[in-house]
Amino acid sequence: YINSMPMVFAFRIADCFFCMGPKVLFQVGKAILKINGEKLLQIQDDGGFLNLMREYFASLGDSAHPESADPRTRAITRFQELLLISFREFAVISDETILSERRKYRNEIVNSIESFSKRSAVRNLKTLGKFTKEQVGFIYDALYKAMCEVPPPPTVAPPPSLLATNDGNQERAETRIGIPTFQVFLSEILTWARNEKIVINGFQQRIDREVAEHELIDRLFYFWDTSCKGSLYPQDLVSGLDGVMSNDLMENIEWFFNLHDKNKDGYLTKDEVLTLSESFLFIFRHEIGDAYLGAVSKFMTNAFEYGDSLLPQHTDSKTGATEPQDIGHNQPYLNLATFRMVVLADEVLESFFETDLSASFRLEPVPDLELPPASSGFLGDLWSNIATQDNRKMFHRLSDELGKTIGKHQVIYRPTIGRFTKLEEPTARESLISPPTKTTSSGSSLNTVLESNSSSTLDASSNIDNGPLSASAFSPMPHLKAVNAAFMERTPFAIDDAGDDDDDSDLDMIHGEDDDQVMDEVDAFLEAHDSGLTEADKEVAKDLLNAEPVK
Predict the structure, then answer these.
(1) Would you say 287 and 420 are in contact if contact means Cβ atoms under 8 Å apart?
(2) Taking a C-beta distance cutoff of 8 angstroms, is the pair 93, 27 a contact?
(3) For 129, left (φ over 0), alpha (ψ -120 to 50), or beta?
(4) Helix (H, G, I), strand (E, B) or coil at 27
(5) Strand 194-200 and strand 410-413: pairing?
(6) Does residue 199 or residue 508 have the better pLDDT?
(7) Nearest to residue 26, comparing CAs of 76, 100, 77?
């Protein structure tokens, strides 16, 4: 009312508001709509409504009945008529009515305000990249959900300056987040930024989620902080996600290389290569089998082997051997072209950069997975009646302790990539520099044993495609059975191949007759020197057979 009415009339309404409470605002508003009801029905757009209200408020000081013959009637102004209708016809509006209506439509109003705030925030972004407005809206939801869980620290406003100008580029203080809030935000959209574990304790089966902490996540925070302010704006998050989610194979390799190139000189030092390997191990920490572990091991071997081959060589004056020149751990060691070559030499890492890295960023709500209860008895009914989050945590701790007591507590982590769901896995490619090793018959038999053992494990391809797992279609039970089968698998040893070795079989044929001759000689010696029992021994034996048991 203060911004729309003339101040003399707005102050009158403000007096009534302070005297009788907020119901006055609703009574006056309803009276305004009733007085202008016929004209409002003829309006077609928002502009006509604003013009009508502007004209009405400007005429509040005019006479409400200018054609009346009674001077006292002509003296009644439109503002007086407004107050009369407000307090007479809408006196039924009370404080209880207002509170009841507010509780009834509170959720719709809050959702409307949040939706308006989201649209405003999306419109204020400088660029959306390759994202749609719906995808940016989900980034907005994940950001403010993280800010509710871990509020960012309050920012200190800079001291006022007489020469400061407002250029319209200042951001709101609450839209800047630090590392703790960024970790929660990233766990909402990145699979390997959270730990999802299946907990089975004999009483219930559930999935717990927790935010993962690692140096790679902190490195990603500073990598997206292009303004070097120690905090991230919504625009930084949108631009950072756009720089990785729409990449192809080569772009992802370059992005991961630049993420670990601390000084941005186009080279990785030896320490940075080790840090990059640790990042691989962090991303693949919950994968089934040893395919990713073997790929990281082969990556480190190839990276240092090929990096040393590109260093300046020097010849030892004493031995004449040629060796790479020693360099410090902080000196340039591996460039992008070499890193790309090493990655492409391994099928597992190539597949990760081609599809899995970009697919691990998912702009979709994380499902609130709850496994079915183990039974529908008393505990199931008790669990259905628990609603608060604190009570759930308390019940989870109690059931976990009971499960540990009876020996049925089990925790299984969900894979973050989920490409391999059984023990049969592809082997990494050979070294780039060293010649390939010769394949022996025992090696082929070992592969046969692995294939036969892996066939007994649960193949989850019936529920999951060959690509990465989808968060919305994840079913934890096939994964649980696969892990249990992996635990029960016997590790194949080289001794298993003894029967397939042709050389051993030939030796057995050559020495077979000699072994038989040795055994015949032993039997003859025993017969010649075995005189049997003496007569005295035989008598003692008969007495023992005929003796009565001792009572």
Answers:
(1) yes
(2) yes
(3) left
(4) helix
(5) antiparallel
(6) 199
(7) 100
DSSP state of 190: B
Nearest CA among 314, 334, 333, 316 for reference residue 324 = 314
Tell whether pTM > 0.85: no
Give the tokens for residue 509: 């044929």
pLDDT value of position 289: 82
Q: Dump pLDDT digits (tens) for 438-460.
A: 444 334 433 433 343 443 333 43
Token pair 């508001």 is found at 17
Strands (E), 281-419: 313-315, 322-324, 334-335, 410-413
Return the amino acid letter for 136. Answer: V
Rounded CA-CA distance 8/410 in Å is 74
Residue with tokens 């290569």: 273
Q: Which two tokens stand for residue 67?
A: 């054609």
Backbone angles phi, psi at 211, to 5 degrees: -75, 130
SS3 (DSSP) at 403:
helix
Q: Show the tokens assigned to 295.
A: 């790929």
- Tokens 């960023």 locate to 361
Tokens for 59?
């005429």
User: Cα separation of 171 and 236, whole Å?
Assistant: 12
Helix (H) or strand (E) holding 195: strand 194-200
Give me the torsion for CA of 301, 306, 309, 311, rounded to 10°: -100
Q: Which of 296, 250, 248 is nearest to 273 (CA)?
A: 296
Q: Rounded to 5 degrees, what angle do the CA atoms 473, 477, 478 make?
A: 80
Tell how far CA 444 is from the center of its chain: 39
| Cα torsion angle, 243, 245, 248, 253, sign | positive
Residue type at 516 in one-letter notation? D
3-state helix vs strand vs coil in the chain, percent to 5 = 55, 5, 35
Q: What residues pair up with 190 in beta bridges, in sequence order? A: 361
Question: For residues 201 and 408, is the Cβ–Cβ distance under 8 A?
Answer: yes
| Chain segment 3-43, per-residue pLDDT in tens | 888 999 999 999 999 999 989 999 999 999 999 999 999 98
Task: Report the Cα 42 to chain-centroid distance in Å.
Answer: 54
Q: Alpha-carbon distance 542 to 546, whole Å?
A: 6
| 116 sits in which H/E element | helix 95-124
Q: What is the pLDDT of residues 486-503, one digit of tens each?
A: 545 544 544 445 444 444
The phi, psi pair for 322, rounded to 5°, reads -100, 125
Residue 471 near residue 367, CB atoms below 8 Å: yes
Taking alpha carbons only, the member of 309, 299, 277, 306 closest to residue 345 is 299
DSSP 90: S
